[in-house]
Design a protein that fits this description.
There is one protein chain. By secondary structure, this protein is an alpha/beta fold. The chain has two domains: about 1-150, Alpha/beta knot (3-Layer(aba) Sandwich); about 170-225, tRNA(m1g37)methyltransferase, domain 2 (Trp Operon Repressor, Chain A, Orthogonal Bundle), CATH 1.10.1270. The chain has seven helices and nine strands. The protein has helices spanning about 20-25, 65-75, 95-100, 120-125, 140-150, 200-220, 220-225; strands at about 1-5, 30-35, 50, 60, 80-90, 105-110, 130, 185, 190. A five-stranded parallel β-sheet has the order 2-1-6-5-7. Strands 3-4 form a two-stranded antiparallel sheet. Strands 8-9 form a two-stranded antiparallel ribbon. Helix 3 (about 95-100) links the parallel strand 5 and strand 6. The relative contact order is 0.15.
């Protein structure tokens, strides 16, 4: 699977993609992650990528030409399944979307800044707009890193235990049950007896009940859905 990320601040993405699961996926050849500097596609000598908004108002808007040039260059090399713009007014990223995206081959991710990007890029190129929450960040790089992490960990061969991702919170539209490890007794705080029983059907029943209860307490909206 290949990700091409277009950013005006590519250095922000160096660390997230150089460690842990994302590093492992790249070393195994399961995922390719390429970050492209938007300024390399600027049309003027100052390498600027933003300008004042038509109609007035505060802030700057990212220009159409650099994005279009970079996207066209990438599309000339291969076909892309999705061109995604990370934006606060997009559809909220959830586990279902991550599952869908983990089945495709090539994705472009656009990282915005300032007051956003020229609407014509969104109209002409973008196939999906995603948000990681109802708040505004300084740019789209961190949301892009969140998206890539959420998707890559689902690709077969990335996690050491391939069943682990299937039991994550939200996979069954419920939050995950509490988890424990050794020691079984820590300063009088004990692991629930059922988890030490070896009775797999009863353990799974307990986990499901705990999952439902945790979801009821913390995210009742998921049960409503």
């Amino acid at each position: 699977m290949r990700f091409d990320i277009i950013s005006v601040l590519p250095g922000l993405l160096e660390s997230p993609f150089a460690h842990s699961i994302l590093q492992r996926a790249q070393k195994k050849g399961i995922a390719e992650i390429h970050v492209h500097n938007l300024r390399d596609h600027s049309t003027n000598k100052h390498k600027s990528v933003d300008d004042y908004p038509y109609g007035g108002g505060s802030g700057m808007v990212m220009m159409i030409e650099p994005f279009a040039a970079c996207i066209d260059m990438l599309k000339a090399e291969r076909d892309y399944d999705e061109i995604i713009f990370m934006t606060p007014d997009g559809v909220t990223l959830d586990q279902g979307i991550a599952n869908q995206l983990s089945t495709v081959q090539n994705i472009i991710i656009l990282c915005g800044h300032y007051k956003g990007i020229d609407q014509r890029i969104r109209d002409l190129y973008v196939t999906r707009e995603l948000s990681i929450g109802d708040y505004v960040l300084s740019g789209g790089e961190l949301p892009a890193a969140v998206l890539v992490d959420a998707v890559v960990r689902l690709i077969p061969g990335v996690l050491s235990d391939e069943t682990s991702a299937l039991s994550d919170s939200f996979q069954g539209e419920l939050l995950d049950a509490p988890v424990y490890t050794r020691p079984a007794d820590w300063k009088g705080h004990k692991v629930p007896d059922i988890l030490l029983s070896g009775n797999t059907p009863q353990i799974e029943k307990w986990r499901f009940e705990q999952s439902v209860e945790r979801t009821r307490q913390r995210r009742p909206d998921l049960l409503d859905e």
